[in-house]
Structure formats: C-alpha cells, structure tokens
Design brief:
484 residues, alpha/beta, 7-stranded mixed sheet, 5-stranded antiparallel sheet, flat
Amino acid sequence: MEDGLRPGPRICEGDCAVLKRDDVFKAVPVLRRRKIIFEKQWFYLDNAIGHIYGTTFEVTSGGNLQPKQEVEETTTETKEAGTDNRNIVDDGKSQKLTHDDIKALKDKGIKGQEIVQQLIENSTTFRDKTEFAQDKYIKKKKKKYEAVITIVKPSTRILSTMYYAREPGKINHLRYDTLAQMLTLGNIHAGNKMIVMETCAGLVLGAVMERMGGYGSIIQMYPGGGPVRAATSCFGFPKLFFNNLHEFPLSKVDSVLSGTFSTETLPSEPEDNALGEEESNGLTDEKQTSLQETEEESTTETAMEINQTEEQETMDVNAEDVGFKENKEKEDKENVREKQRKQWERRKKLIETAALLREKNADGLIVASKFHPTPLLLSLLEFVAPSRPFVVYCQYKEPLLECYTKLRERGGVINLKLSETWLRNYQVLPDRSHPKLTMSGGGGYLLSGITVVLDKGKSDSSNLEALKMEEPSSKRCKVQDLHC
C-alpha cells in the first residue's frame, strides 16, 4: 500500500457492528435481508458487507445503503450574514416550503442535501442570521433530513458510551470514564489471571477481555443460575478469546474457601447400553402393539369383508403413526444424550475453575455489581496473590465507605483509595469553544488498593496494643491482670 497505510478490517456477514449517527449508537448483527430500524430510518445492511469499518453510508429508496460521496465545500464565496439576531422574529412564516412540499420532494427521491439547500433558499430570515446561527441552522436541518449513518467496529469506548446513553440501569450507571479508570487501576494486561465479578450485562467482562487480547485467563464469578453476557457478545470476539474464560457461581465460593467443595460423582458420558435397553424395550412394545393390530385386523376381515377398503386405509394411517412415533422417540433420546453431555462438560469445567481458585494466585480482582461490596470483596480477596491490585465499583459512596472501614480493620491491604471521577464535555469549534451546558451528574465511585501478606499473629497483637492505648489507666490494669 502507498505511504505504508493498510486498510482497516472489513464488514463481514455475521459480525456484530455498531451503527452511529451523531452521538447515538446501536449494536446490531450484520445479516442479509434483515430489516434494521435506527433513528426513525429503516434499511438493510446487504450493501455494507465488504466495506471498511468507519464508512459513512446514505440511505436510499428501498432501504438500500450507498457509500456517501464526500462533497468539497466551496469556501471561496463569502457568505452573506447579518451582524446579530435581534430583528429576527420566530413567527413560523419565514419558511416558504410547507410540509406537503417537503414530503413531495422526498417522494421524488431527492437527496437530503438538496432538500436542505432548498430550505435555505426558501428561508426569508436565513441571510439575516449571524454566521454562527447559519451553521447551527444547517446542522439542525441536516440532522433531520439527511439519512446518513456510519458503521463502526465495536470497542469498549463505543459500547460503554452506547449503554450509558441508552440503558444506564443495565450497567449500574457505570460511566465510560469510570470504566477506563477501573482498567487502569486494575493493571489489566495480556497474560494476567483475573477474577471479575460484575452485574453490568457483561460490559466490564468484555472490556477486560479486550484489554487482555485473548492472552491469560479470566474467572467470572456470577450470581444465580448462570452468567449474563449480553454486552460481551456485542464485542464480536473470536472463539479463541473464550478458551481461557472460566465461570464459577458465587454460591460455592465459601465451600472452596473452607475446603468442603465437592461435586457429585461425574456422570460418565451417555452410556449406550442403557439407551440400547430402552430402545429394545420400545421395539418389543411396538411389536406387541403391531401383533395386536394384525389380530384385530384379521378378526375384522373375517367378520366384515365389505369394509375391506376402509380397513386398508386405517392400516396405512396406523403405519404412518408408528413411523412418526419412532422418529419422535429417536429425537427425544438424542436430546437426552446431548443434555447429559452438556451437564458433564459443565461439571468438568466447574471442577477445573475450582482448582484455579484454590491456587490463590490471581493477578487482580475487579468487582462491579449491584450487591453490597463488603462481603464480596472480603471473600474474593482470599484468591488474590499478594502485591496485586483490586478495584471495586459502586454507584453510591456509602457502601464503599463501609468496605473501606472493614478493610482497614482486617488488614492485608495497602494504598486504599476511594475516588470519584468527574467528567465534563467541551465543544471545540472556531471562536466557540466552551464547556457544554449539559453534563453528567456522577459516574459512580471506585475503591482501589493493593493486597499484601496478612500476618494474623501480628494483627492480633497490634489490635491488643491499640486497645491498651485507648483504655484508661484503671481499665488497662484490669486488662493486663486478665491476660496474666
């Protein structure tokens, strides 16, 4: 390639892509002949397959996508603009084009750019506005009438922005800058052995997986019957990334710590003998039923020879029913066998994950859940090796304050910090750079620290000395007499 540039990844069928229009995002799978509705526009992604991620498309008639051609704006002509907007009155009569006229232009297939140009020409107050007001007017009309979308590749930044804007409750109001702080404070990098406990629809898990790049191992702790990975699937990771992803239920953490963890005896792979006996029993039953049917048919033939044709029809129907029953039984047995195989694999993975936890050499811990962080952190820190970072996210400050106090009393951690990130967006334009009027009220709180070796003997003696120093002299003598 010229100048050493390489084209980016291309859009392929089956990928998970993100649609972007201004500051609005939506994650969709790339499938042929599937109708997509985004920002009051419907279209198909068939024509987008094969193009490079980041390409901007224009929605044409019939819901087809066409790459938008860049139009060079002529800056040689001086724009006619007013000095201020004091004499402009918004009475609704400045625009000559009516809604019916605009609808007729759309029906004719005229592009949005041409519609915007006609709106400008038919506006009686456009030339009296200031240059900044004219740019704002054009931007507003383009957003309304130009059906333009951009297809981008999903990433942590894009998906976290999308979830925080569309469904913040599903990710516990975890803001994207707070997530970036978590990845930094947790020292996430390739080759780590991380423990992740989150109830953010899999967004934090996906961010950790993206940062590690498929190298290392991740143990996901989950409540309930199974992990939720809705946001993780939007990243579109290859299968290689999931090879070293393990999962373990929170309900069995205490048993691992106490050494009483044990699963039931592993069921051997579905035995063919048992299934063979069931099949043989089914065949004998079918033979008995067929013999009974033949006997009944013979008696009916001797008794009533007139209805012989009707009996043949019933025989054909019965034969079809028997064949249908046989196929159904085979399908049921295959489903049972597949279910047993999945249960066996799941139990095997559970034992492997428990063995990884028993090693107690994890390189870091990330907690971002809707549950109270104190019991979670105190139990999961047992699996983290010394001199390793941990990060806890909570939407509110009070639970983390309690967790901070408990950790100080327990010991075994240093460099404890409780922080809150502050975010403010800025508009950067010529002569118009300023902070935006609207900003986020809060992005949650983070408790971070580093684990150290916990010496229980020293901690007990230090607690006793602290107790002696706090007690008055009279009570201190009584405490000493009791220990003597």
